[in-house]
Amino acid sequence: MQINTERFETETRGVNHVEGGWPKDVNPLEIEQVIRYRKKVEKDEGYINAIMSLAGVSIGFLCFLVWFGLRKQKKV
């Protein structure tokens, strides 16, 4: 019995992520530039929405963990 399958070439790549996500005009080693950039980003509506969404998910997960822990304690 023979099976004909298409070959698929893959490639492994690595990334050294030490400090990233900064625009080219912001030097992450310069504290004043970092503070100025963060203040600018934190006022962005998209950033605020993303943080609020993550907070909702996190609270839901924490509630689940508490519920699960209490449930497990009752069984012991």
Short structural description:
Helices cover 57% and strands 0% of the residues. By secondary structure, the chain is mainly α.
What does this structure look like?
With 76 residues, the protein is an all-alpha fold. The chain has a domain at 31-75. The protein is 57% helix and 0% strand. The chain contains two helices and no strands. The chain has helices spanning 31-42, 45-75. The chain is flat and about 70 Å long. 0% of the residues are buried.
Topology:
Layout: H1 31-42, H2 45-75
What labels would you give this structure?
single chain, 76 residues, mainly alpha, 2 helices, 57% helix, flat
Instruction: Bin the strand percentage.
Output: under 5%
Number of beta strands: 0
Low-pLDDT ranges: none
Distance between the termini: 55 Å
Shape: flat
Average per-residue pLDDT, rounded, comes to 86
Total helical segments: 2
Share in helix: 55-70%
The biggest beta sheet reads:
none
Indicate the structural class. mainly alpha
Taken in chain order, the helices and strands follow as HH
Question: Any idea what the radius of gyration is?
Answer: 23 Å
